Amino acid sequence: MKIDFSPPFINDKVKEEVLKSLDSGWITTGPQVRKLEEQIKEATDAPEVVCVNSWTSGAILVLKWLGVGEGDEVIIPAYTYAATAMSVIHAGARPIMVDVGEDFNIAIENIEKAITPRTKAIIPVDFAGWPCDYDGINDLVSKKRELFVPQGEVQEKLGRILVVADAAHSIGAMYKGKSTGVLTDITIFSLHAVKNVTTAEGGAICLNLPEPFNNDELYRTLRCYSLNGQTKDALAKSKAGSWKYDIIYPGLKINLPDVLAAIGVGQMEVYLDDILPKRKEIFEQYNSFFEEKDWAIEPHFRTDDQQSSCHLYPLRIKGATEEQRDLIIQGVGERGVAVNVHFQPLPRLSLFKQMGYQEEAYPMAMQMYTNEISLPIYPQLSQEHIAYIVKVVSETVENVLK
Fold it and tell me: Which residues are named in the active-site annotation (predicted)?
């Protein structure tokens, strides 16, 4: 049996929406993008949503709008994909990495130690779809107002550190009765090919800024900034006599095309009622099986306050070394099951080593990484697939650890 790690979910509805986009003759940013934005607004209760061509470009855009630059700092976890840090670097600031807790997410006590007058933003990461402790993070930001040194109109208006949730994994997750998308000032979802909802490549920026900000107005600003700072998109220019435009900001070219948005539109039609419940069902089946194994550390799924979106199933092998973990991955793969590791902590990577980050400064991140393997979890998996996955994984682990 051959089981892929994370194939995209493509059903008849997705195909229908893509063909509709192609038949319309409108394939760049237009009505399908706006429809996807409205679907994500409805699913999350976010006041406004801006779709762009990737999570990374969305984060760069937000940080540029905030006005960060040389000498500024943005706090991120050391346990995340490189895009979290790269967005900070490309915006001209320095990523300040802090260690995580036992749930893989950024530890609030470590955020507090890292805040300085140079801190302009915090980007907590909902690892695997498990939401961070956002009440704790937001309370900390409020408590640290006196340390904040604003530069520029946006920062003056905000008057504190901006919280930008890296919710690349967590569309559909819940925290204290609220959806990811409205838990911080700004939330950014990834719509990459392996995510719960995909547009092949893409991202969605959820705007939830407090007064005196106007989220509708900010939507129009960021939409303009995502199109090279151009005041009219192609759809607006297509109307008779509306060709004239202006360039008002040194923006980016990061708009999402309609033909890609159509994939997400089709998926969003069934995400909350079909795709997400199926992911949760598989997650619970895995937990029920592995909780009987004394070598298994199951990932977080649900508490009274938090509910995962079940993007990943990050199983940890108690007591396994990195070498043993790698042998387990090899053995499982040889029997046809594709598994993965999420993630290599950033200080392990050459770029960040060269920038002076050291692995020993992040002991929890290194500990979590050493024995983690991510199992397949997606709605196309059958009961036969799931039974085979847990059989192969458990037999391989027990063979390696004996």
Answer: 195
Residue pair 377/286 in contact (Cβ under 8 Å)? The answer is yes
The residues carrying an active-site annotation are 195
pLDDT tens-digit readout, 318-342: 999 999 999 999 999 999 999 999 9
Helix, strand or coil for residue 368? helix
Map tokens 């649900």 to a residue: 302
Buried b (16+ CB within 10 A) or exposed e, 319-340: ebeeebbebbbebbeebebbbb
CATH of 12-269, one of 3.30.470.30, 3.40.640.10, 3.40.1260.10, 3.30.450.20: 3.40.640.10
SS3 206: strand
For residues 224-237, one letter each, b for 16 or more C-beta atoms within 10 angstroms of the residue's C-beta and e for the rest, the string is bbbbebbbbbebee
- For residue 101, pLDDT over 80 is answered with yes
Contact 196, 275 (CB under 8 A): yes
Task: Please give the model's pTM, rounded to 2 decimal places.
Answer: 0.97
Percent pLDDT > 90 in the chain is 96
What integer pLDDT is reported at residue 54 of this predicted model? Answer: 98
User: Which residue in 31, 40, 41 sits closest to 259, CA to CA?
Assistant: 31
Q: Domains of the chain: which residue ranges?
A: 12-269, 274-401
| Cα 113 to Cα 393: distance, rounded to the nearest angstrom | 39
Judged against a pLDDT cut of 70, whether residue 84 lies above it is answered with yes
- Which class is domain 274-401? alpha beta
- 145 token code pair: 């107002």
- Tokens in use for 162? 């901006």
Instruction: Tell me the per-residue pLDDT of 371-381, one tens digit each, with 9 for 90 and over.
Output: 999 999 999 99
**Is the bond leading into 352 cis (omega within 30 degrees of zero)?**
no
Average pLDDT, integer, range 58-69: 98
Mean pLDDT of 141-158: 97
* CA dihedral of residues 237, 251, 226, 204 (deg, nearest 10): -170
Confidence of residue 402 (pLDDT cuts 50, 70, 90): confident
Number of helices (H), then strands (E), belonging to the chain: the values are 15, 13
Query: What size, in residues, is the chain?
Result: 402
